[in-house]
Amino acid sequence: MPDQRVAYSSGGVIYRVNGNRFEVALIATHEGRRWGLPKGHVRRGETAEAAAVREIAEETGLTGVVERHLATIEYWFRAGSTRIHKYVDLFLVRYTEGSLMPQTAEVDDVRWFSLQEAAERASFARERDVLNQVRQLLEGK
Q1: C-alpha triplet 71, 73, 76: angle, nearest 5°
Q2: Helix, strand, or coil here: 115?
Q3: Cα separation of 48 and 41, whole Å?
Q4: Cα Rg of the chain (Å, integer)
Q5: What is the pLDDT of residues 53-68, one digit of tens each?
Q6: What is the pTM of this model?
Q7: How far apart are CA 54 and CA 97, in angstroms?
Q8: Domain of 76, in residue numbers
Q9: Could you tell me the CATH number of the domain that includes residue 30?
Q10: Per the structure, how many domains does the chain have?
């Protein structure tokens, strides 16, 4: 039987108001081919909310304040011969300061998108669902 383990990450949807529209920041990975939400490993003793704010800042250069929990998504992936069951807590985070600066070791690009553009651009269905949930929350659509 292959090895199995559980991994726990946290991240979120950081948003700002630009004129009359809401914008969210997405990161690109895999040489710019995969767009998604910033997220990463929750450290021992760290809350999911604190990890989300830290990971968003590390990956995007943007700082924000957690407003609410949005969803917990889960999926399986393989690292070598180990199957990993990953849980990711995603939060709605209001942008407070900073400028777009991708984390060079892990992120290829980071950009602001309208909520609709972000939902269309996101590479994973579960993240698209969360972005559509945010669109309903913020825009009432």
Answers
A1: 175
A2: helix
A3: 9
A4: 15
A5: 999 999 999 999 999 9
A6: 0.92
A7: 13
A8: 4-139
A9: 3.90.79.10
A10: 1
Query: Is-contact 60 27, C-beta < 8 A?
Result: yes
Q: Would you say 59 and 38 are in contact if contact means Cβ atoms under 8 Å apart? A: yes
Amino acid, res. 90: L
Neighbours of 41 (CB within 10 A): 14
Amino acid letter, 10 = S
Position 103: which residue type?
Q
The token pair at 29 is 């990975």
Q: DSSP alpha helices (H): ranges in the chain?
A: 48-60, 115-121, 125-139
Q: Which alpha helices (DSSP H) does 10-102 contain, by range?
A: 48-60
In the predicted structure, residue 139 carries a pLDDT above the cut 90: no
What percent of the chain is modeled with pLDDT above 90?
A: 83
Scanning the structure block, which residue is given the tokens 């991240």? Answer: 11
